[in-house]
Design goal:
By secondary structure, the protein is an alpha/beta fold. It has 15 helices and 14 strands.
Amino acid sequence: MYIAVIGSGYVGLPTACGLASFGNDVVCIDTNKEKLKLLQSGIIPLYEEGLQELYESVKENLKFSGDVSDIKKAELIILAVGTPMSDDGSADLQYIYQATQDIKPYLQNGAIVATKSTVPIGTNDEIERIIDRSDVTVVSMPEFLREGYALQDFFNPDRIIIGTDNISVFNKLRNLYIQHIPSEKIIRTNRRSAELIKYASNAFLATKIQFINEISDLCEKVDADVADVAAGMGLDTRIGRKFLNAGIGYGGSCFPKDTNALEYMANKNGVKLGIVSSTIKGNHDRRFNIAARINKYISDIDGDARVAILGLAFKNGTDDIRYSPAIDIIQNITHNPIYVYDPKAMNNAKNVLGANVIFTKSLKDCVKDADVIAILTEWPDFKELENMTFDKNTVILDYRNILDEAIMRKKPHVTYKRIGQKI
């Protein structure tokens, strides 16, 4: 099949490369000239584990273009452009509607337009109205790719949702995946259900994160250990262990905007989503609470403290800092300077953090002579702290609970603090 993917971001690029690996001819369209130049020279301009290597193996089947007319031979056109959060919490749909206008003149007879962008209920109805052609079918195919694990999720998905009432179109899209993915994981719904599945899924996962963070706060007051509580809860198959890791709150390009967009849609339709609203507020407050904790440890130190922050990306495995709680926390630390390090997100963070932040070249450079070290992203690289010696009194705030507690508590000069244990 000849496929066009509109957008070359964290969704578009893994999708384009993955579909090309299935033997399809794929063109990926992007209007960003700087990004396009990198892509056409063979450089993937974002970090996703294994993506550069996958591109190298499929580049004979994949091309990048800034000319939307290159979609004219495509049987399937996938919309994978951004739908960022507006000031009022709603999804900003200008880019997806513009992309629809752009492709409209070049759609061949019988083309399928599939929306992978996360869009509010009814958006595909509007896309269909803009295209205004009875021979073109608009389908909702929400993506469920986790940043940092996008290729793993593409090739081993939990489910593929195809929102359409057109059985022949469903079968055509099903056949695109059926040789690679078990048929029971490919599900047909109507278009609006498909749109809502994405929002409902992300809101539920965000709620699990906020719930365990609240339980973590209680653990710290009653001398319980949130790691034990989460492990015990997770053994219940009705609950599951995933997304029960206490920390600094959720971030990234999906959970914050999708929970807000779902709340906005509900309010617009006269429905109160109390759990979702509480999750949004609790997650917002969480990062300021963590910043206040760090400020307290800094203020307890006599003299000028050296403060090291490990982690800038919203999670490990990506260079994405969009709505990263680590960024908000750093911006609310009342100390100057702050030394920071992240294995992948340094360049992106340099565009948003202030002059009081010093970007270091390595983990060792960052924590050298530090009085306070705070871990804000769960990069495996940071476990190297377990092998380090500290020559002065150092407070290590493990706000992702990634270090071996037994090792850290035996270290001379180290005061080791974890999330969800008695303060």
